[in-house]
Amino acid sequence: MAMAMSDSGASRLRRQLESGGFEARLYVKQLSQQSDGDRDLQEHRQRIQALAEETAQNLKRNVYQNYRQFIETAREISYLESEMYQLSHLLTEQKSSLESIPLTLLPAAAAAAAGAAAASGGEEGGGGAGGRDHLRGQAGFFPAPGGASRDSSGPGEEGKQRTLTTLLEKVEGCRHLLETPGQYLVYNGDLVEYEADHMAQLQRVHGFLMNDCLLVATWLPQRRGMYRYNALYPLDGLAVVNVKDNPPMKDMFKLLMFPESRIFQAENAKIKREWLEVLEETKRALSEKRRREQEEAAAPRGPPQVTSKAGNPFEDEEEDEPATPEVEEEKVDLSVEWIQELPEDLDVCIAQRDFEGAVDLLDKLNHYLEDKPSPPPVKELRAKVDERVRQLTEVLVFELSPDRSLRGGPKATRRAVSQLIRLGQCTKACELFLRNRAAAVHTAIRQLRIEGATLLYIHKLCHVFFTSLLETAREFETDFAGTDSGCYSAFVVWARSAMGMFVDAFSKQVFDSKESLSTAAECVKVAKEHCQQLGDIGLDLTFIIHALLVKDIQGALHSYKEIIIEATKHRNSEEMWRRMNLMTPEALGKLKEEMKSCGVRNFEQYTGDDCWVNLSYTVVAFTKQTMGFLEEALKLYFPELHMVLLESLVEIILVAVQHVDYSLRCEQDPERSETTLH
Predict the structure, then answer these.
(1) How far is Cα 517 from Cα 557, in angstroms, rounded to an integer?
(2) Which CDD domains match (predicted)?
(3) Do residues 171 and 215 make contact, with C-beta atoms less than 8 angstroms apart?
(4) What's the DSSP call for residue 304?
(5) What is the C-alpha separation between 202 and 205, in angstroms, rounded?
(6) What is the pLDDT of residue 148?
(7) What's the whole-model pTM score?
(8) C-alpha dihedral over 399, 404, 407, 410, to 10 degrees?
């Protein structure tokens, strides 16, 4: 009875929560008014929690039940989409072929077709095929500007050679590069190249995909339809990465050729998909062709077989020996349940973002097929798995892209980086990791607010930058331990680039804003102290910060030197050579402390009776200003500034010495002194 009441209460509660006019605030208010106390509220809360858990379980069960059907449906849609693209492409080829025939050739073509039909005695099918081949041959090799097409010269060797010859005529500077026997054109089209870092448009290019390489040519604006050779990339070392659309940047894909990469934009999404599909198909075909060539070269060549059984009584014995390795070569058991379900399991892992599980399955398969032959079933399985590996790589690359959230620090990238390394793509993982961290450092610096004193901002800037650099270095050492040492060289190059970013922000705030020399010296001191902390992990970038700051520090020293010289000359013009009378002992004591802080320890010998100082005001002011300049300059000192500092001091002291010398000569020559006074 209690169970039935509980079920009815749960059903009533579910209907109430699922109603269209349900308002949570009103429901809680009514519930509080109707409840007798805290116990009723606790029981009601437990019922709602149980209902939430039941709903979550039902939802999860439904998702798992429909997930495999969803995968199958998505695969069928993909196959259908591919077939539709192929059909559309064939129709486009036929249309372009027909439109390219000059109108004057139509009567001749019709007469030729009629004559061929009459001569063949009614074999219309063969004549029609021949006509189509003729039209296909008449279709031009190059598409209209802005288009893309597959090779339409026919499957024969003569047609392929004719297509390649046309390519050599249209592209300047590539004849010596395309002389490989059996080479032919697969696909070509117009593209726009963009700069990889700032996504700025660089140039218009035309891509020519051969069966073993990709040729990139630039447009010649003065000569329509002609191109100039730009680059040639073998397909063996070429990786294709799909670039996610980020308006207005869309329909792009990236080509990775270690150690460089290039980004191209297609005319529309359809042409971009065609480029990606044709590149993958051509690479797969080239890999399969070379694998067959290696197998044929490695296979032992036996004696010629005798076809007649009657003339060879030992045929049965001879056939038994070569048949044995062939039977053993085919024995690769792929009927294991986990192998049969491997492609679907990989799809599930990728969809659920279980990257570790996906890579574990790939490692398990590679270990299982290690040292085993590659009959057609194994090759077919490999092709399916390679497609999933490509999808997994694209997802991991997106995880490390700067478009993703940069929060979480360097540790947030560890998952994707480790799986890319396990997939054998250490170089790509290193590049993407450093690019992600560069974007994070740039964002952190840009988000700093410039407020308050300059020294306070520099403290914040140094803390943010060097903390990020230190965390990145430690994470890099953790992720790439035991990998190729070239990755560490890439990190050092990245660290220097990041230091340049820091110095730009530092100089803009300290030196461009014309801060005092004392403030600049304190800021540089803070930056050096933070930079020395990197020595804890074996990374010394002090020489880099010195090299990047030397010009700004030289400018600051020169500016402050000119200020001191001008002030000294002004005081010299008013010099009366009279002793200073400070009037009160307090003022005298204050002057003694100031001179002591400047480094003049024996100032007592220059004081006289009462509050007199046996020095003129000009000499005391010059001493304080020069000693202050020297103290601040020594905070900025490093070997590259040695001569600059000495020359500045010499110029400052020389101004004072010249004034003293002039005053002494005037003392000895009263007439000169009177002339000067008048």
Answers:
(1) 8
(2) PH_RalBD_exo84 (cd01226)
(3) yes
(4) P
(5) 10
(6) 63
(7) 0.46
(8) 40
